Amino acid sequence: MIAINSLSKEKNITKGYVQGACCSPGLWNIQFNTLLKLQYTKHTKVVAFADDILIMIKAETVGEAENIANVEMEKILNWAKDNKIRFNEEKSKAMVMTRRK
Q1: Between β-strands 52-57 and 9-13, what pairing exists: parallel, antiparallel or unpaired?
Q2: DSSP string, the chain
Q3: pLDDT tens digits, 9-68
Q4: End-to-end CA separation in angstroms for the chain
Q5: How far apart are the C-alpha atoms of 72 and 53, rounded to whole Å?
Q6: How far apart are CA 34 and CA 92, in angstroms?
């Protein structure tokens, strides 16, 4: 537990990382690294930048991509639950990219 004292107001931090603290990025990288090392399918590539994650899925059809995405998202949601992390659903987006015209 970390206690933060700002202008005589003290707050106990019981989870997460203090924004702006010198050790926050390192601690986040250690935890986030376990997400990147989950066993994803061969059709999936996961890339992280700061506290954002990009999940790329390659498939022959949109339906196949959707099925793979559902399997991968279940892994990620389980990881988040185990690590007491919540994702902001309002900021989460999906995009289909294709070579078809």
Answers
A1: unpaired
A2: -EEEEETTEEEEE-SS--TT-TTHHHHHHHHHHHHHTS---TTEEEEEETTEEEEEE--SSHHHHHHHHHHHHHHHHHHHHHTT----GGG-------S--
A3: 666 666 655 555 666 667 777 778 888 899 999 999 998 887 788 899 999 998 999 999
A4: 55
A5: 13
A6: 20
